[in-house]
TrEMBL record:
The gene is nth. SUPFAM superfamilies: DNA-glycosylase. This is Endonuclease III. Its EC number is 4.2.99.18. Transmembrane segments: none annotated. It catalyses: 2'-deoxyribonucleotide-(2'-deoxyribose 5'-phosphate)-2'-deoxyribonucleotide-DNA = a 3'-end 2'-deoxyribonucleotide-(2,3-dehydro-2,3-deoxyribose 5'-phosphate)-DNA + a 5'-end 5'-phospho-2'-deoxyribonucleoside-DNA + H(+).
Length: 235
């Protein structure tokens, strides 16, 4: 099976499992999405949504975030991991958005990555979800799934994973591919307990085959042991 055909099979099976995959970070505009993605680093979307529910009611625009002392903002997001550094980045980001971009989140990828706390992944999420520009954001789920399914090599960098996916997936499907792979990794191909035994992609997944092999060996050994066990005479 050629690489693109294999990728098509992977995406079709994932889409069948998760037809409604979407961005789970709640937001109502590009600025809120940027803040939410910044907060999501090393933190679950569920926790971020709990925090931003009240955060986005208190802070409506960049000026609101810099109108309060840093320690107040820290307290508002204290349930988020690395809340101190994230609070600092949010205020720096807001200053730059106001001073350089007229108060609006920039629409260009290079400009987005100029913002404190905004890396390539965050910029890709904002570009694709807020501005409709096709992009594949490689987070921990996308990276894990790509490497387990041999779409990328185990030692590939995040950027290399992104480039390989962009090459294999039609551009118009990049954004949805990002969402579908995240759902697959978050709810099925989990880091610690992947559901290999019910995975439709097990036949092309070396990682799955490796994980299932010990179970098969245990069964084989048990059968062999039972077959060679001395039988006791009856009667």
């Amino acid at each position: 099976m050629k690489a693109k055909e294999r990728m098509r099979r992977i995406l079709d099976d994932m889409t069948e499992m998760f037809p409604d995959a979407h961005c789970e970070l709640r937001h109502s505009n590009p600025f809120e999405l940027t803040i939410a993605v910044l907060l999501s680093a090393q933190c679950t979307d569920e926790t971020v949504n709990r925090v931003t529910e009240s955060l986005f009611q208190k802070y409506k625009k960049p000026e609101d975030y810099i109108a309060v002392p840093l320690d107040e903002l820290e307290q508002d997001i204290r349930r988020i991991g690395l809340f101190r550094s994230k609070a600092s980045n949010i205020q720096k980001l807001c200053h730059l958005v106001i001073e350089k971009f007229g108060g609006d989140v920039p629409r260009e990828h290079e400009q987005l990555t100029e913002l404190p706390g905004v890396g390539r992944k965050t910029a890709n999420v904002v570009m694709s979800n807020a501005f409709g520009v096709p992009a594949i954001a490689v987070d921990t789920h996308v990276e894990r799934v790509s490497k387990r399914l041999s779409i990328a090599k185990p030692d590939d960098s995040v950027l290399e994973v992104e480039k390989k996916l962009m090459k294999l997936v039609p551009r118009e499907e990049w954004t949805q591919t990002h969402h579908t792979m995240i759902f697959f990794g978050r709810y099925h191909c989990k880091a610690q307990q992947p559901k290999c035994e019910i995975c439709p992609l097990l036949d092309i997944c070396k990682e799955g085959a490796r994980r299932m092999k010990p179970t098969a060996n245990v069964r084989t050994s048990k059968k062999a042991s039972e077959a060679t066990r001395p039988r006791t005479k009856q009667g």
